[in-house]
Amino acid sequence: MREKLTPSQQEAVEHDRGPLLVLAGPGSGKTRVITYRIARLLQRGIPARNILGLTFTNKAAQEMADRVRRLCPDSRVWLGTFHRFCARLLRQWAPAVGLQPHFSIFDTTDQRQLVRDVLRDLGYDPTHYPPEKIADRISRAKNDLIPPDVFAERYAEAIGDHLRVVTAQVYPEYQRRLLRLNGADFDDLLLHVVTLLREADELRRELDERYLYILVDEYQDTNLAQYQIVAGISQIEPNLCVTGDPDQSIYGWRGAKLDNILRFEADFPGAKVVRLEQNFRSTQAILRSADRLISHNQFRKAKSLRSDQHEGPPVELWCFHDSLHEAEGIARTIRTLVESGEATWKDFAVFYRVNWLARDIELALTRYRIPFQVAAGLAFYERAEVRDLLAYLRVLANPDDDAAFRRVVNRPLRGIGKTTQQRLVRWAESRGLPLWEAARQAEQNPEFSKQAATRLKAFAKLLDGLSLADAGSIEGLLHAVLDRTGYARAWAESSTERDAERLAVVHELLRLAADYDRSLAEAATLQGFLESASLSSDVDALDETAGKVTLMTLHAAKGLEFPIVFIVGLEHNLIPHERALSSDDPREFEEERRLLFVGMTRAMRRLVLTRTLRRMVRGRLFDAIPSPFLSEMEYDVKDFTAEELPGETVSPPTAAAAPPQEASRRNRSSDAASRPLLTTGAALLNGTNEEVPVPFGFHVGMKVRHPRYGAGTVVEAGGFARHRTVTVLFEEDERRITFDVAKSPLQPVGIR
C-alpha cells in the first residue's frame, strides 16, 4: 500500500490511536486515505464489526465499499450514509421514540404533502404559506435539535415573521401526524437517534463499545445532529478519523455547521492534523485560479494546494450578449470539440447556481443534437409511476401509512373519488383506525353508499391479498402488484410514445428491484428496498457512463470530476446568490465563494466561466453586473458579445452595453503566459498558434487598433466560416481579448 500513497496520505493511514483530522483539498485522494486506512485496520486484526464508515451519499459509500473489497475481499465493514445508519438503528429501537419497526420514511415530497394537509386543517391557505418553505423551517429546526414543543413556545409570537409563527403551529401537529402514520422524515432519522443516545444509555454504551474505529467523510458538511451522533459514540475509544475541507463546506443553508470541522481539535483534545495538499485532478492553471479565489475567505484552515498535473490552458471567462448567445456558444463549442475527436460527450459538464439557468442550455444542446442528462431534473424516484408503485409497497410494509394508502386508493382508477376518500379519512380518524382497516369496515359507515362501501372493501381485500402473497422477492412482489392492480395494463396496450415511456419507467423499477434482490440475497427485505429508494438522491442516479453531457447545479457537482467544465452566470445576484448579498452574515457570502471554488475544482483539463451583458430574470431583462468574485482570480477574457445567433442580425453593442473590461488576470511571469489561448473554431480544436487566414487580412503579428482598448497586436488567429476569431494583446495595460473579427470594430494599422 505504501507505494501507492504520498507521504501525507501514508501518515493519515498509519495513525493508530486517537482523533485524527485529515484536511483534504479537492482531488487530493481522501477516498483513498479512508479505504486504505480501513484496509490497514483490518490487516492489524481489528474486527470488521468494530469499524464504522459514514458519508453523505450512497454513491460515495458504494465507491468506498468497492475499494475496500478490492483491498480486503472478505471484509464486512459497515459503510453507508448517516441516514442509512440511523434508519438501521431505529428499526431496532423504534418503540423508544414512539415508532414501530416497520415505519415508513417520508421523503421530501411526502413531507410537503403532509405539511400541506396540516396547513389546510389549521385554516391556512397553502398558496399563501408555501408548504416547501414551512417544511424547510421544520427541517432546519430538527437539524438544530429543536423539538416541536420548544419551537412552538419560542416562536409563537415571532414579531415580523408571520411564516415562522405559522410554522410554530404546524410543526407540532406535523410531528404528531408523522408518529400516528408510523412515519419518520429524513431529519427524524437523525433527531430520533440523537434522542436515543441521550436517553437510552444502554444503546449509547453498546455502540461506543462496538465501534472502536469511526471514519467520517466530508466532515465539513455535518450538522449539529450528526455531530452529536459521532461524538456520542466516540467517548470510550475516541479513535475518530474525519476527513474534510472547510473550503468545500457548501451546505450551511440546510444546517451544516462549518464550526464542526474548524473546532475539531478543541472538541477532541490531542487530535492529530494531517494536510493533503497535493491535487491529482486539475491542471496547475485551474488550481492556481481556484486557490487565489478561496484565499479571500476568513473562516477556513489555511493550506497550500499544488497540482501534479501540467500547466494546461488558462481559465477562461467568456462574455456574451445574453443567455441565448451564452447557451449557443457553449453548445457549439461542445459539438465542435466532439466532432474533432478531441473530446467525447461525457467529458463535458455545465454547472449553474440555480436550476432555471439550465433552460437555455438545454434548448441549445437539443438544437445541436447533443445528448445530455440533468442531474437535478425530474429524478427517477420522483416519477409518478415510481411513486405510485412504491406507495403500494409502503402500505404493504406499514399498514399505518395512510399517506401511501391515499396515493394509491384510486390508482389506477377504481371509482373511489375525493368525496369518498374524505369521508373515509374523517371516519377513520374518529375511530382511531388506519385507512386500510377503515376500508375493510366501510359498510359500517352510513355515510357511504353501497357502491362506495363495496369499492373500498374490494380495495382493502386487494391489499390483504398482496400482503399474504408469497412473492419470494421484491421483484416478485412488484410483479404481483402490477398483475393484480392492472396498474400498467393500459400503457402496455397503447402505442403512444408517452405510454411507452411510462412503461419503460416501470420496467426500470423492476430491474432495480431485481438488482436489490441479487445484491442482498437472503438479507433482502421490503423495508430495506423502500429505505434504499427513499434515501437516494439525484446525484446517486447520475449515470457517469451514459455518454452524455452533464448539466447540474454547483451544489450537485460536489464530489464529481469532469475533463471540461463550464460554469455559467458569473454575475451579481447569481454567483454570489442574491440572498448572500443581502445577508448581514459574512459567512453566507463566504459560502458562495466556497461554492464557486468547489465548481472550479471539479474541472480536470479545462475550465470556462461565462457571463452576459444582459440576462432575463423573473421575466424581466436586466443589465448583468459582473460577479465580485471575478476580481479575485486569474483568467483570460474571450469577448463574444457581438456574436450572432443563427438567422439573427445583432447590432454592435452600444457604449452603455459595451463588452466587459476584465483584463487577463493570469500571472504573466508563468510559462503559460506565452501559450496561445483556446477559442471556438479551429484554435479551440487544435490549440495552435499557427497563422490562419481570416477576413480583412488579420494575421498573427498585425498591429490593430480598437476604439475602446487602443493599440494592440494580433497574437492568435483561428476559427472558421462566420466564427473566425483573433486574440489581441493590447499595449496600454497588456490585456488579452479574443474578438469575432467579422463583427468587431478592430482596424488594421500596419504589419510588423
Please outline the helices and strands:
Elements: H1 7-13, E1 20-24, H2 30-43, E2 51-55, H3 58-71, E3 78-81, H4 82-93, E4 104-106, H5 108-121, H6 131-143, H7 148-155, H8 162-180, E5 183-185, H9 186-199, H10 201-210, E6 213-216, H11 224-232, E7 239-244, H12 259-262, H13 264-267, E8 272-276, E9 278-279, H14 284-294, E10 306-307, E11 316-320, H15 323-339, E12 348-352, H16 358-367, E13 372-374, H17 384-397, H18 402-408, H19 418-431, H20 435-440, H21 450-468, H22 474-485, H23 489-492, H24 497-520, H25 526-534, E14 549-553, E15 562-567, H26 578-582, H27 586-600, E16 603-612, E17 614-617, E18 620-623, E19 636-640, H28 682-686, E20 702-706, E21 710-718, E22 725-730, E23 736-740, E24 747-751
Parallel strand pairs: 1-7, 1-8, 2-3, 2-6, 4-5, 6-7, 9-10, 11-16, 11-19, 12-14, 12-15, 13-14, 15-16, 19-23
Antiparallel strand pairs: 17-18, 20-21, 20-24, 21-22, 22-23
Structural overview:
Helix 5 crosses helix 6, helix 5 packs across helix 8 (162-180) and helix 6 packs across helix 8. This protein is of the alpha/beta class. Strand 20 and strand 21 (710-718) form a beta hairpin. The chain is built from 28 helices and 24 strands.
Radius of gyration of CA atoms, rounded to a whole number: 29 Å
- Helical content stands at 40-55%
> Got a strand count?
24
Percent of residues in β-strands: 15-25%
Number of distinct helices: 28
Structural class: alpha/beta
Query: Widest sheet: strand order?
Result: 13-14-12-15-16-11-19-23-22-21-20-24
Instruction: Round the mean pLDDT to the nearest integer and report it.
Output: 87
Question: What is the overall silhouette?
Answer: globular
How far apart, in Å, are the first and last alpha carbons? 58 Å
* Biggest beta sheet attributes: 12 strands, mixed
Poorly predicted runs of 5 or more residues = 647-696
